[in-house]
User: Which sequence fits this backbone?
């Protein structure tokens, strides 16, 4: 893969990340809250309302079908089936598709968001144009804590690297791809 293409993907990912981060801060401020649950993010209906109110949505889908590509592959070429497509999804004005899901998990994780930075367009490969963001009650967007109550955001570089090596790099799951980019200062080094 060309270095230019990697930079393009990371630039698009960074834009979505920044837009999300700013929206979470604004949401907390608008609701005079110290964290996201206190602000009102307590279930999927609240998450959907948040998306509609804080982002320019151009398409809404009852599932990932029609908003996302029909199939995604791993970095090793395996077809990925480890994610649940049966959640409401949105396409933003930027062209990014997002699938937010409320999940009040140990360690302060309250949401996971599947993100395809360019919607249905290719390459439809984990770690290239599809990533998973995990949102924590403190407003951080990071990789997964694996439902480990002892681990909360921000995750350590060592933990993110382990996630990458055990999941994304091996072609098992999407987890770990985003954390690797965070570790490598917003560069796609893999």
Assistant:
């Amino acid at each position: 893969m060309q270095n230019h293409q990697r930079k393009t993907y990371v630039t698009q990912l960074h834009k979505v990340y920044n837009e999300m981060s700013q929206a979470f801060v604004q949401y907390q401020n608008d609701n005079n809250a110290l964290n996201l649950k206190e602000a009102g993010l307590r279930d999927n209906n609240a998450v959907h309302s948040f998306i509609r109110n804080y982002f320019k949505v151009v398409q809404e889908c009852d599932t990932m079908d029609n908003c996302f590509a029909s199939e995604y592959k791993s970095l090793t070429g395996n077809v990925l089936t480890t994610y649940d497509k049966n959640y409401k999804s949105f396409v933003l004005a930027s062209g990014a598709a997002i699938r937010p899901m409320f999940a009040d998990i140990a360690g302060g994780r309250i949401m996971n968001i599947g993100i395809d930075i360019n919607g249905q367009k290719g390459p439809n490969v984990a770690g290239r144009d599809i990533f998973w963001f995990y949102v924590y009650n403190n407003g951080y967007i990071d990789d997964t804590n694996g439902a480990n109550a002892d681990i909360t955001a921000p995750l350590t570089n060592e933990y993110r690297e382990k996630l990458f090596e055990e999941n994304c790099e091996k072609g098992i799951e999407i987890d770990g791809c985003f954390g690797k980019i965070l570790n490598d200062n917003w560069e796609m080094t893999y």
